[in-house]
Amino acid sequence: MKLSSQLVVSSLAVFVLSACSGGAEQRRQADNDFDYLNTPSLENWTPLVGSETRFYTNYQIPQGDFSGGIGNQVDIRPPQQVLELIPGARIERDKGDVMIWLLRQDEADRVWQTAQTMIKERDVKVRESNESRIETEWVTWVSEDEAAPLSARYELTRGASNGRQFVRLALIDWRQGDDQQSPTYTNKERYSALMANLLTARYDLDIRQEAERKASELVKQIPISMGTDRSGLPVIIARSPYDVLWARMPKILPEMGFKIEERNQSQGTIKAKYSEPNDEFWQEVGVKPIELRSIVYTFQLGDLGNRTSVNVTDKDGKPVEEELLKDMVPVLAAMAKKHQ
């Protein structure tokens, strides 16, 4: 699915699983016939003369004026979920609209600013705008699940209720091809969620970029020295949290001559092949060359709270000699300092 009019939709925000193959109608409708629509109307029960009638509520059909699609009008696609990527926020669906609830005004301010940024970056035209309301022009969605391009207009509002802040995203106008019509509940629920996911994904991107910037600042002050692990074996000790060092190692190792081949954050391992840098590199960093073979080494990072251990093993899984670890310490320290 994509959003046209120069608006490229991230796969994270709009990826929809289709359980069926074939045309758009087949992907939206049940794969069986609709013979149940020809079921005769229910008739009142006529008891036999002299018999005692007993009714069990287990099988009682609810009475009321119910509305909704039947037959090929029923959309069998799974509901579109809103990605909960805003820390501390609670997502609520209200009659097809998306409500983002937040505890503090500064959090709501940031979400509102993110919405404005997302609209501008994706070239969504705005019909009306003020400090607490944004109304967009037509936004066109193109999807393999739909027989024709769909267009929608959105309204974003912000406010406060019961001591909490909220940002509401609502689909207010709907058009299929050139036919403008009132949006159904399914339309509102599905395509409000897709637009909301663009917002939450953009917010998540800001959060991750900010975390990376903070990690870059912290890594400048990482003292690196020799130490021992819990078993008493020699390891390199970086006085930095695990997440901070992990984020920086892919930038530090290549400058030391290591070509990264594989990373596994959950296991804390980085596999990289060593190729000795030229003499100019060693002169620049001001340390003696490391006498490592041109093989694949595994860097094992261990989380020690506010510190991180770094152990290095060769291609056979054997720890490198303590002297080689000691030689790595000043090089690692020099690379960290270089990124200040």
TrEMBL record:
Keyword presence, DNA damage: no
Keyword set, alphabetical order: Cell outer membrane, Lipoprotein, Membrane, Palmitate, Signal
Pfam families from the UniProt entry: Lipoprotein_18
BP terms from Gene Ontology: Gram-negative-bacterium-type cell outer membrane assembly; protein insertion into membrane
DNA damage among keywords: no
Source taxon at top rank: Bacteria
Any single Gene Ontology cellular-component annotation: cell outer membrane
Residues in coiled coil: none
Localization per Swiss-Prot or TrEMBL: Cell outer membrane
Membrane topology annotation: Lipid-anchor
InterPro entries: BamC, BamC_C, NlpB/DapX
Subunit (UniProt): Part of the Bam complex.
Job of this protein: Part of the outer membrane protein assembly complex, which is involved in assembly and insertion of beta-barrel proteins into the outer membrane.
Family affiliation: Belongs to the BamC family.
Entries under HAMAP family matching the protein: OM_assembly_BamC
Name recorded for this polypeptide: Outer membrane protein assembly factor BamC
Naturally occurring in which organism (per UniProt): Vibrio ponticus
